[in-house]
Amino acid sequence: MIEQEIKIAVIGLGYVGLPLAVAFAEHFTVVGFDINKHRIEQLTAHEDITQEVSSAQLQQTDQLTFTAKAADIESANHYIITVPTPVDANNTPDLSPLINASELVGSLLKPGDTVIYESTVYPGATEGVCAKILSSQSDLRLNHDFFLGYSPERINPGDKTNTLSSIVKVVSGSNPATAVKVDDLYKKIIKAGTHVAPTIKVAEAAKAIENTQRDINIAFMNELSMMFHELGIDVLDVIDAAATKWNFLKFTPGLVGGHCIGVDPYYLIHKSQEKGYFPQLITTARRINENMSTYVCERILKLMALKQKHIVSAKVLIMGMTFKENCPDLRNTRVVEIVEQLQNYHAKIEVYDPWVDPEAAKQLEQPMTQNPQTDHYDLVVLAVAHDQFLNSDPRKYLNKGGVLFDLKGLLPEKWVDERL
Q1: Buried b (16+ CB within 10 A) or exposed e, 166-203
Q2: Which secondary structure element, helix H or strand E, spans residue 352, and what is its range?
Q3: Is the same domain home to 405 and 286?
């Protein structure tokens, strides 16, 4: 197939799909599809609430259109699926968005088409679940009538340095020829280069362990934080000292939220248990990180008691709500758990986060404020390391005798009553 004939449909226009659609539109005709009509209206008006793509980027090409109508992507011959892959309340993989997207694409599939998945899954899901849906919906055969690719996303929300084109892209295909074809396609937009995995399962597993490795490393730091706190040692001072060795990995303790690190390990755990192996290290790391919000609240309550401040009816300011710094992403943010636990003690909570879209905050049903009051709060918790907070002095929000807890180790040590 010559390049001029390639037409791409990107299914899912979130943090992953939108930058991908914009990048491919520099070379091909691209239609971005999303079931969220409000999202389509925003993008058509050249607005991106994720702040991953600028208004200028959305206007710079006439090869990119957006739609919520399936009929508008029927003429595509390359479908790239970038929908979320969350877990349910029991931390079991929830493939429903992926299944729905596969059913949609399967109903449109034509002989010769290629379907590429970017969503994070457990090894075997793309071929074992998605390909079967595509075949059943289209009556077409894999590697005979249509072809399958897998190239796991590596988007880091809010990161303006490690962007789509500057991160090496892992690619794979349902057969060697398709792998080459998928590789050639992504080479058009990935300046950092590509890595062709030998199989789709290898590519799936590689993505899953990337975030699982981070989860384990953060869990180690969280356990050190708990241990050294009991020993009366500042864990951040310990980490700074250890980091002077060339091969020390400088992770820091904290809450683990977001769409990947707190989710992907469960996909590996699920598939491994299904096959009869019960992973211990990964499971323990998840348990430690899942419990960090409770641990933080316990530390805060003990600190308040030490300072002779009552948490009941206390005026509390939480600085930051997103799951990470300098990013509007609220997915799986653990700060919500801290708010809810403090509310159980009837504390009067206000959350201040200049990165959060007001409409998104309403969906979380959190008590947001855009103008924290000075000399007002009994407790201020710095929960997210936004740049705006780095350049401010949160002590101005405290009333006389108020307590400042630094969850991120962002503030000068002499300013805070305690830091994680």
Answers
A1: ebebbbbbbeeebbebbbebbeebbeeebebbeebbeb
A2: strand 348-352
A3: no
Q: 268 and 295 in one domain? A: no
What pLDDT score does 360 carry? 76
pLDDT in tens, 41-77: 999 999 998 889 999 999 877 899 999 999 999 999 9
DSSP state of 231: T
**What is the overall mean pLDDT for the chain?**
94
134 plus 206 within the same structural domain: no
Q: How many CB atoms lie within 10 A of CB 255?
A: 26
What local confidence, expressed as pLDDT, does residue 386 receive? 94
Please state the domain count of the chain.
Answer: 3
If asked whether residues 257 and 344 sit together in one domain, one would say no
- Whether 205 and 192 map to the same domain: the answer is no
pLDDT tens per residue across span 345-367: 999 999 999 999 877 777 777 78
Alpha-carbon distances, residue 178 vs 6, 24, 76, 146 (angstroms): 15, 18, 17, 10
- Out of 240, 258, 290, pick the residue that ends a domain: 290
Instruction: Provide the sign of the torsion angle of the four alpha carbons 110, 114, 120, 121, taken in this order.
Output: positive
Looking at the fold, whether 277 and 385 belong to one and the same domain comes out as no
Residue range of the domain that includes 320: 291-420
Residue that is last in its domain, among 290, 305, 337: 290
**174 and 225 housed in the same domain:** no
Query: Which residue, chain included where needed, has tokens 């509390």?
Result: 316
- Which of 130, 260, 297, 327 is labelled catalytic? 260
| Helix 264-274 vs helix 200-230: crossing angle, to nearest 10 | 110
Looking at the fold, whether 145 and 250 belong to one and the same domain comes out as no
HSE value, Cβ hemisphere, 13 Å, CA-based, for 251:
18
Q: How far apart are CA 387 and CA 409, in angstroms?
A: 13
Q: What is the pLDDT of residues 279-304, one digit of tens each?
A: 999 999 999 999 999 999 999 999 99
Residue type, 220: F
Whole-model pTM over 0.90? yes
The CATH number given to whatever domain includes residue 360 is 3.40.50.720
**Is 260 annotated in the active site?**
yes
Look at residue 286 in the predicted model and tell me its pLDDT.
97
